Amino acid sequence: MENGVTLVEVMMIIAIIGMLTAMSIPRVGESLGEHAALTAARRIIADMRYARRLAITKANDHIVRFSPAGGPYTGYGIFREGVQVGETRQIPERVTCTGTEEFTFQMLGNASSDGAVSLSAGDSQYDVNVIAATGRAY
User: Fold this and answer.
1) In which domain, by residue range, is 44 found?
2) DSSP helix/strand/coil, 45
3) Going by fewer Cβ within 10 Å, which terminus of the chain is more open, N or C?
4) The pLDDT value given to residue 3
5) How far apart are CA 124 and CA 72, in angstroms?
6) How many domains does the chain fold into?
7) Residue 1 domain-assigned?
């Protein structure tokens, strides 16, 4: 008896692997968009918390402003007295971001008003909310 595989058997295995890969690619693309929306929401929450901490430590209002005005937003930045603090953060292209355009955090840690930003990609939607009384972003 001879042990081994024939060329036909190897070609069949390669064809099966190719078909399975081709079927899984669209699902991977959808999940990447959904993951990008979740990651963007978490980053926005972290940056809002950072802006709140800056407002408290610097005893000066700090604003998280989304752009372009009117949305859907493609990026945002933190501003103090009209000057940007740090870099502009980009929202991934696969993610649609809408909602409140500006969040102002004051020196006591509160926000000037309640607000929310919604991020969506595919079937997933994530909301970032700010409570005015406490300035809590979640």
Assistant:
1) 7-130
2) helix
3) N
4) 78
5) 16
6) 1
7) no
